[in-house]
Design brief:
The complex is a heterodimer of chains A (about 120) and B (about 110).
Chain A: E1 5-7, E2 10-13, E3 19-24, E4 31-38, E5 42-50, E6 53-56, E7 65-69, E8 75-79, E9 88-95, E10 105-106, E11 110-114
Parallel strand pairs in A: 2-11
Antiparallel strand pairs in A: 1-3, 3-8, 4-5, 4-9, 5-6, 7-8, 9-10, 9-11
Chain B: E1 3-5, E2 10-14, E3 19-21, E4 24-26, E5 32-38, E6 44-50, E7 56-58, E8 64-68, E9 73-78, E10 87-94, E11 101-102, E12 106-111
Parallel strand pairs in B: 2-12
Antiparallel strand pairs in B: 1-4, 3-9, 5-6, 5-10, 7-8, 8-9, 10-11, 10-12
Classes of the chains: A mainly beta (about 120), B mainly beta (about 110).
Chain lengths: ~120, ~110
């Protein structure tokens, strides 16, 4: 079956612009995770959803970052007023349900470059 | 708090040689431990995981890892490296939450 898909695969934007990154999880997966992979910080957790609610947003680096999930499926990560330090690969993962025993399946990521 | 340390950001081996990638963790509760592999321009793929029970865990592509509580380690090994094993490898821990805490990764190069 289809895996986790993310769009766009690459995004180049100017400092100060807003961007939206999209994640389509595996069908039937109720848990969805966002991570960020950057040269200076490695792989960091951002936020996770169980259904449409976000029990853990502790990794969002600032109030410029927000995420939502609708219909228990697609999720959008929005970065407002982008800064150069936001440049990174944003990875989305989904799992059958929440709980650490469930494998997280990762998408290919969106590479964001802020000029 | 949980953390993961991967010793060696780069490891180089010859084809056919033993692969050993080191991972040490810190966790205040019994951890679940994972190894993921990332090929260029791709997402992460799970190699293997330890939850409970048998401490020697076998994964895909001939990799295995052993959970050693006394050493707080979860090193990844493969007896004989193949060119296709060249990739970046991440160790991760999950304690009492759903999120994964990753190490900084080890890039494996395999020389012919």
């Amino acid at each position: 079956g289809a895996g986790v898909s993310q769009s766009p695969s690459n995004k180049v934007t100017e400092k100060g612009k807003d961007v939206e990154l999209r994640c389509d999880p595996i069908s039937g997966h109720t848990a969805l995770y966002w991570y960020r992979q950057s040269l200076g910080q490695g792989l960091e957790f951002l936020i996770y959803f169980q259904g449409n609610s976000a029990p853990d947003k502790s990794g969002l680096p600032s109030d410029r970052f927000s995420a939502e999930r609708t219909g228990g499926s697609v999720s959008t990560l929005t970065i407002q007023r982008t800064q150069q330090e936001d440049s990174a690969v944003y990875l989305c993962a989904s799992s059958l349900s929440s709980g650490r025993v469930n494998e997280q399946f990762f998408g290919p990521g969106t590479r964001l470059t802020v000029l | 708090a949980q953390s993961v340390t991967q010793l060696g950001s780069h490891v180089s081996v010859s084809e056919g040689a033993l692969v050993l990638l080191r991972c040490n963790y810190s966790s205040s509760v019994p951890p679940y431990l994972f190894w993921y592999v990332q090929y260029p321009n791709q997402g992460l793929q799970l190699l293997l995981k330890y939850t409970t029970g048998a401490t020697l865990v076998k994964g895909i592509n001939g990799f295995e890892a052993e959970f050693k509580k006394s050493e707080t380690s979860f090193h990844l090994t493969k007896p004989s490296a193949h060119m296709s094993d060249a990739a970046e490898y991440f160790c991760a821990v999950s304690a009492n939450t759903d999120k994964l805490i990753f190490g900084t990764g080890t890039r494996l190069q395999v020389f012919p």
